[in-house]
Design goal:
Radius of gyration: 21 Å
Distance between the termini: 13 Å
Number of strands: 17
Shape: globular
Helix content: 25-40%
Low-confidence stretches: none
Mean pLDDT: 96
Structural class: alpha/beta
Order of helices and strands: EEEEEEHHEHEHEHEHEHHEHEHHEHEEE
Number of helices: 12
């Protein structure tokens, strides 16, 4: 691994105006950020000519095991209008389509990396029919692309936990095998027993030292009530900082005062939210979360799969979509969406060393934009992507590796 000096870029430090500086990299880590740094002996010097530099993007919520990326086009068939219909359709057709597929997942990871994503959290379906096959497939895909992107797995009971006997034991087996996060799904609206599901999830997290990430699509008062249950359980078990509510559609439906109350309770309990701006579903209010000190991250959710024919794995596009849906129009607010796609996701994944500072891994993206807000609004071209100090992509195309 050769040393690298990125000359004359403008590193983005949240809350500050990007200023011209050099970034020195040794052994895959940033060693210095400042003006007129010395070129490394025998290393490479790349002139950024004032381009904006962002930390590598974090996709905190996707489904690599479901993707059909790189395979033949599959006409979309949702199976029906309800969540249960879509779940059943996915389970019914996955064997026919060769899912979960390590090849498709690897294809998608490469596209994500070319767009500048450095870290991914992927939910992986686990149920008595597929067993841990999805874990094996996504791990194989991640291993093939280990020099491009880091992948964290969620053992996800897509078909229900309480409603699907045998799934709890499989989740435990996945965690014992090293999966980092245990997932849940609509404890009340789908499983029909929120107390029992949360009992299982928090017990598994405590037993295996895992994190928790719960899909919560339930709308209205039912959704908000479950936020309170999850916050209370997090405080009681001491798992602050390890619990996430994904989608959280009900949050975007509430009146402003209720949104503030929920966000403040989440912040106090140490519970984060992840929003994906799926279809027309409500997004978590970005400004409300920031004002309360509550953690928010972003993800692409499903990408070219049986749930949706759309998506391209581009986290800057996702940040732009969230900003548009949440009516973030002034520069400071547009930067909040970018923060959620970078530092917010890094906090959710527990990345202690992250960002454009000395000592952090050299994972970064060089974009063609005057300001961070312009990068979000314009979905700026990715001029260069660096992973662990190595240039891995230019102008949206991966280099040979």
């Amino acid at each position: 691994m050769s040393d690298l000096l990125l000359r004359g870029g403008r590193p983005w430090i949240p809350g500050a105006e990007p200023a011209v500086a050099d970034i020195a990299v040794t052994g895959g880590r940033i060693t210095a950020v400042g003006a007129d740094l010395a070129a490394p002996a025998g290393g490479e010097v790349i002139d950024l000519d004032g381009a904006l530099v962002l930390p590598g993007f974090v996709d905190a919520h996707c489904h690599l095991d479901k993707t059909l990326w790189g395979g033949p086009w599959v006409p979309h068939s949702s199976g029906g209008p309800t969540l249960a219909d879509r779940i059943a359709n996915g389970e019914r057709r996955r064997a026919e389509l060769g899912l979960p597929s390590a090849d498709y997942a690897a294809n998608l990871l490469r596209i994500m990396a070319a767009h500048g994503t450095s870290f991914v959290r992927s939910h992986v379906d686990i149920d008595p029919d597929v067993g841990l096959g999805g874990v094996a497939a996504v791990r194989a895909a991640a291993e093939r692309n280990a020099d491009l992107v880091d992948v964290e797995l969620v053992a996800f009971p897509q078909g229900g936990l309480i409603a699907r006997p045998g799934t709890a034991e499989l989740l435990a087996a996945a965690l014992a095998d090293g999966v980092e996060v245990v997932g849940g799904l609509d404890p009340a609206g789908y499983d029909g027993d929120p107390v029992a599901q949360l009992d299982l999830l928090f017990d598994l997290a405590d037993r295996y030292g895992a994190k928790i990430d719960i899909h919560l699509h339930d709308r209205g008062a039912l959704g908000v009530w479950q936020y309170r249950l999850i916050a209370e359980r997090t405080r009681a078990t001491g798992l602050s900082g390890r619990v996430v509510i994904s989608h959280a559609y009900a949050m975007g439906e509430q009146a402003p005062d209720e949104q503030r109350r929920v966000a403040e309770e989440l912040a106090e309990a140490g519970v984060a939210m992840i929003t994906c701006a799926v279809g027309t579903a409500p997004v978590v209010p970005v400004r409300v979360m920031r004002a309360a000190g509550a953690l928010l991250a972003l993800g692409n959710d499903g990408i070219r799969d049986l749930w949706t024919p759309f998506g391209d794995g581009d986290m800057l596009r996702r940040a732009s979509t969230v900003a548009n849906r949440d009516r973030l129009v002034i520069d400071a607010d547009l930067e909040l969406a970018l923060y959620a796609a970078t530092y917010g996701g890094a906090q959710v994944l527990g990345l202690g060393e992250y960002g454009l500072t000395a000592g952090a891994p050299a994972d970064l993206v060089v974009v063609a934009a005057q300001t961070p807000a312009a990068a979000v609004a314009g979905i700026a071209e990715r001029r260069m992507v660096v992973k662990r100090g190595r240039v891995v992509a230019r102008t949206g195309q991966l280099l040979a590796h």
